[in-house]
Design a protein that fits this description.
The structure holds two protein chains of two kinds.
Chain A (H helix, E strand, L loop, with lengths): L3 E4 L2 E4 L5 E7 L7 E6 L6 E5 L3 E2 L7 E6 L2 E6 L9 E6 L12 E5 L1
Parallel strand pairs in A: 2-10
Antiparallel strand pairs in A: 1-3, 3-8, 4-5, 4-9, 5-6, 7-8, 9-10
Chain B lengths: L2 E4 L3 E3 L5 E8 L7 E7 L5 E8 L4 E4 L7 E6 L4 E6 L8 E9 L1 E5 L3 E5 L2
Parallel strand pairs in B: 2-11
Antiparallel strand pairs in B: 1-3, 3-8, 4-5, 4-9, 5-6, 7-8, 9-10, 9-11
Classes of the chains: A mainly beta, B mainly beta.
Chain lengths: ~110, ~120
Amino acid sequence: DIQMTQSPSSLSASVGDRVTITCRASQGIKSFLNWYQQKPGKAPRLLIYAASSLQTGVSSRFSGSGSGTDFTLTISSLQPEDFATYYCQHSYSIFPITFGQGTRLDIK
Amino acid sequence: QVQLVQSGAEVKEPGSSVKVFCRASGGAFNSFSITWVRQAPGQGFEWMGGVIPMFGTTKYAQKFQGRITITADESTSTAYMELSSLKSEDTATYYCASDGAGLDPWGQGTLVTVSS
């Protein structure tokens, strides 16, 4: 199975900061990479699909890039509502799928 | 717009089974696949398996082979995930999600607690 490795595992930042989270796949997955945001007690929310496509209704301060094995999620200017945990997930195969271990973003 | 609604929280004894449903509304159920993942308290996501209702195709994670069954009933736009031989380590929130361009939407989650 394809393994997904996120870094960092946790991050402290301030409102207004630019933040980047990275995700590496254990083998090439072209652009089959998605990003999610999860807040405590809630289901995840899809932010970015196909590595760089912004899901409808998601703020344009979120952006994604990369292909092959290395991907990034960037938040251009952190807002209070952005403090959450972020996960990457590959969709190179319909089944199985795997997620990164998550990046917890806290307020500094 | 498709919405997924899951069944409510369950408390189960070790060795028993649990069956969680995931009902779709607002869209064609057989036009997408349904994936089941779980999240243990404070942990990340673990893929369990999925079903493509249109074809009746299912696939399960190796870890759960033999004790998981995922089905779909197109007539009621409902998918089911049944997990048997429950252990305390199965305590988690179980989610269904529609798998199109990314997992979206998600059900609200079903907390399953395994305790004697």
